[in-house]
Amino acid sequence: MARRWAGVLRSPLGASAAVLVAAILVLAVLAPLLWTDAATATDTARISQGASAEHWAGTDSLGRDIFARVLVATSLSVRLALAATAIGVVVGLLLGTAPLLVGRRAGRLVTAVVNIAVAFPGLLLALFFAVIFGVGATGALFALGLAIAPAFARLTQTTTARVAGLDYVAAARIAGVGRFRVLFRHVLPNVAEPLVVNATVAAGSALLAFAGLSFLGLGVQPPDYDWGRLLGEGLGAIYLHPAAALAPGVAVVLAGLAFNLFGEALAKVLGERRPLERPVRRTAAEPAPDDSAMLVVEDLRVAFPGVEPVRGVGFAMDRGDAVGIVGESGSGKSLTALAVSRLVDESGEVRAERLSFLGADLRAGPHRRLLGTSLAMVFQDPMTSFNPTMRIGRQLAEVACEHQGLGRAAALDRAVDRLDAVRIPEPARRAAQYPHEFSGGMRQRAMIGMGLMGSPALIVADEPTTALDVTVQRRVLSLLADIRAADDVALLLISHDVTVVEQVCDRVLVMYAGRIVEDLPSAELRSRARHPYTRALLAAVPDMTTDRSLPLAVIPGRPADPAHLPTGCAFAPRCPLADERCTATEPDLVADDAGRRVACWHADIPVEVRA
Amino acid sequence: MTTTALRARTEHAWARFAARRLARLLVSVWVLITAAFLIIHLIPGDPVRAALGPTATPELVAARRAALGLDDPLWQQYVDYLRGLFTGELGTSMTSGLPVSQVLGDRLPATLELALLAFAVAVLVSVPVGLLFAVLTRGGRRRPAELGFTATSIVLAAIPEFLLAVALVWIFGVNLGWLPVAGRDGAASYVLPVLALALAPAAVLARILRVETLAVLRADHVRTARAKRLPDRHVYLRHVLPNSLTAAVTLGGLLLGSMVAGTVLVENVFAWPGLGSTIVSSILAKDYPLVQGIVLVYGVGVLVVNLLVDVALALLDPRSTIREG
Which membrane topology describes this protein (chain A) (predicted)? Predict the structure, then answer.
């Protein structure tokens, strides 16, 4: 853990904040020893003078050097701020852990009080307590400490509550470990990080707040002085010599900023993960598909900084075609779908030899012209794919308003009609509801309905049924099949489920590690699959005849990591047929006479896959 | 279900939400009133002696104690205090002899004006700026702009309002002489106090709004909106902004609450004739009835702000508060 804390020093911001905090602490100790004489020496010949070579920040009404006073005031300001923070942290910890220590009922009362107190700004609480504790440094110290406490108690409550619910804490409790021991040995060590970070930030705020109280005359009283006091005294004479107000002001800002930045740097270091830097690989392009098709994808590549998850994918689709793309997570199938719709994230770079849809080049200019009208998307998670703050009907109607120039009412009518078309019962009522009032299956159907607001030639469905249960899945799939049959709409279905693709599509593209490794009619999937990966995928699907006394078949090894691809065939490390040629050279995707394509050196060897 | 039934159900949810929220408000107000009442009893020693000073005669102290009802049993004083609150009777200022309610009535408008104007300025500046910078710097674009924005907003947010106020006084009052630096007299006198109060919250809000907007820009439903090929303007204003506003409104409420507190400091820098300068002078003068009254007003102000935030959240996000519990 110590090494993680030290990580603060590695970022330039964290390092400078740490240096600044250290400098302030050193100054707080040394300044009173070095400059107290200069700060208290009165010089009646030089009263309230501006900055000069002798007095860098001028002199006050008794002729004392303001720069020296600002330096010396560091000590009191920092000590008071740290003491107030300490009071706040201790009281906050006590209040925050009360639910764990004093039993449920008393704990609930404490929580309620904390919740009410937390609603008030710290300064108001500090003023309130300052009235009770009286004007002066001690009163302000306790006032500020108690004002910090509620927020800290709230933080302690939420963080400890999360840890206290964990198994190992419950286990310690059941084992008869005492409450205090549970708290100090099991709970607090695990919430220490956020608490330390927040205490650091709180110290910065306490410094500023104390300056505020002293500035108002409620904190440090003469003859003592801290930055706030100096600022208050300087403000009265700001027209005469501004330095008297500005010098302590700058000191307060610098110190407050140092503590705040240090806290933020700590938080960042404790919460961050290293970004990954990976080399980019290149592989040979795949053969060109034919030209006249509705959708033509040729040597499609999607690259993110350091990785290329899609490495040269090519296929073509005609009107009414249903093509499925299957593969494991990370095989690049979803990115392929997003790239076709030009919806890849900003950070991704999409390149292709050709990417044309209905004769239009999707790569060029305002390339999304067809999106939303001729090309519709259905996404994986219907729970998050609708805007939660808009009614479903409006979200559908938007498409018609925008692309068909319909008025609001007409567009809404069409939306209701489309909801009806995707078999949503009581579509008029449903259109007026928000997404959270829809079930998952209904949302997915509404999403399909949204795609039908235009007259799509192609629906790209990215794992449309993964988030749904099996019965709902079937209804969504049959809806897609019906739409396809009725309007001659092409369907590009992305799924990790071979069975789904086999049922719905006429053609299957099998992807592995960013490339198509096999392309064949789905009717031939079970009988004539040639790539070992395809056959392994099929073997991994249990059916009614699977012997359930045996463990489920799995594909041995791990899915290929797009950032660490082997030199040869990406599947070679997991392939039962792999030999030297496989690990040395990546096979090209080769088409046979019937248009089936496969990328395997051993495509013609029959293989026995363990099932 | 018919439309009427649906509406009835929605209204029912709203009624439940309102009832629950109102109950919470009442409890908080009761705690606040009790705390304000207790101020005078929690002070160590005799508050009247403290207020009148060591030179006051014992007779005067006794008479003042009797006038304040401090010799009655505690419960009696509490009941009297509550009764006084309901009739608008908040006691008498010990220094000026004026009714506390009258002092509050004189001073509150100036503070309200300041806080509301500053809030309006903060929102009007931060929302467009935050959204704009989120869109400009999305997906790691325009690093320099992002760096400049982040640095500026961190520094502005870290400077407490009273120091900002001093800096503004120095720049615009002392050096440039453009704007008045004290009092409340004409539109020009509002500029510096409002700026001093608004700048830091505006910086915080803009920062949060940028971060929230960046997160929303990555959300699935924004991808859906792009898949519908809506114009950018619609994507940002209809699908992104309402969703990033929810966090901003929560934070905005907290900021408005702390702005109410910030007025105390800013009023004292600019000699603004509001509650903030009055509470400090009354604390220093140990004028406890007046302190009690002002604490109540500030506290109720904060609670009302919190209530408004919850209502705004419920309106913005149909899933939020009204559906809980």
Answer: Multi-pass membrane protein; Peripheral membrane protein
